[in-house]
Amino acid sequence: MDFQWNEKRVGRPQQLKVFWLLPTIFLLTGLVYGIWFEGIDALVLGLKEIMLAPTILLTDFLEVGGIGASLINVAIVGFINLFFIYKYDLKINGVLIAAFFTLIGFSFFGKNVYNILPIYIGGYLYAKYQRVSFKEVLIVMMFGTALSPLISEISFSGILHPVSAFIMALIMGIFIGFVIVPLSSHMMKFHDGFNLYNIGFTSGIIGTVVTSLLRSFGVVVEPVNIVSKENQWVIIGLVVFVIAILFVIAFYLNPKALAQLKLTFRYKGRLVTDFTYLVGYGVTCLNMALIGLGSLAYVLAIGGVVNGPVLAGIFTVMGFAAFGKQLRNIIPVMAGVIATAMFFDYDLSSTGIIISILFSTTLAPIAGSYGGVIGFIAGVMHMILVTNVGIIHGGINLYNNGFSGGIVAGVLIPVVDAFRKERA
């Protein structure tokens, strides 16, 4: 393809510098903002509150711990994962970009250094048991932190004595990390790669089982709704800055990136669709920037608040723009969700509806493979399901839309295929 001749070649050290840039920006901004506007005492207290929060859906760290502490938490989680990426020499490709951006986003909303590490330990033990390198399961662990609220919930909800709670949370985290790799490969068969958030679907299944077990012992885990209600200029500015960096990288690597953006439309988006390999890093970064800018513009246009959950949605959508999502296959699905929300008279500016719209793009491969009409129907089904499935796992699965998306894809695709065969 033409992009192979136009794109500047950059080595892995240069690629890693871009990855290190994100948490560094968040760390510096968090320290400056926290010390200057909030005070050191408030910053330290905010970090403590974030670490001790149960973190189940929806727990917005911007509301729990403040802006400075939230940004520092994001940076810490980012640096930990960058250490693993560097140590195990992971290739900077589409799925890694998707995993890293998803981690960054959800560190505003559910993930912290305490509740992700037990899952990584479980993944490490699984790799040892299977006699493979931890490198081979690391990306699944990055996504598998979807269930990290379970560790925080057991540890800090008061259901057990503190020592017993810590031990039980550690055991549960290790169990999750150990089983999520084999389970995720089997769950892929259910939706056949048409749900991009496969780990979200897997986590929903695990979360449902665990929540049901807890309820059997009289422990009820219910979703909460702790979200920030006001836009903050520093947060919006950071998102714009990240998007601007992606634009700069895109045109630096490939001056013809805009003209070649249409190359992404050739691909349906079904797992596995790695745009860094198929269309190059320049076009991929431009795709990420445009989708991120469009997501942010939509949120602000409807009067929404760019809080922790919404940040998770924006960064996840941007990340998966390197791994299956493009402008043509996300719009029909989002339109279906918006239309359904309007039909049921939901408030489009509410956080719950905004993140449902953003995360519904997990079903982008359906629109890419079957066209806009079926993509729209997938969006309708997703909106109906996602507002009801959270109660099943009690909010301990952060990727609730991935759970819903897996169900939609697993039900819709066989039906569509059956009608197509009858027509043929």
Summarize this structure briefly.
This protein has helices spanning 3-6, 12-38, 40-52, 61-64, 67-87, 94-106, 113-130, 138-144, 148-156, 162-191, 198-216, 233-253, 257-260, 275-278, 280-301, 308-320, 327-343, 351-359, 364-370, 372-393, 400-423. With 424 residues, the chain is mainly α.
Please describe what this structure looks like:
This protein is mostly helical. The chain has 21 helices and no strands. The chain has helices at residues 3-6, 12-38, 40-52, 61-64, 67-87, 94-106, 113-130, 138-144, 148-156, 162-191, 198-216, 233-253, 257-260, 275-278, 280-301, 308-320, 327-343, 351-359, 364-370, 372-393, 400-423.
List keywords for this structure.
424 residues, mainly alpha, 21 helices, 0% strand, globular
- The termini sit apart by 34 Å
Q: What is the succession of H and E elements?
A: HHHHHHHHHHHHHHHHHHHHH
SS elements, strand count: 0
How many helices does DSSP assign?
21
Stretches where pLDDT falls below 50 for ≥5 residues? none
Structural class: mainly alpha
Biggest sheet descriptor: none
Radius of gyration: 20 Å
Helix content range of the residues, please? over 70%
% residues in beta strands: under 5%
Shape: globular
Mean pLDDT over the full residue set: 93
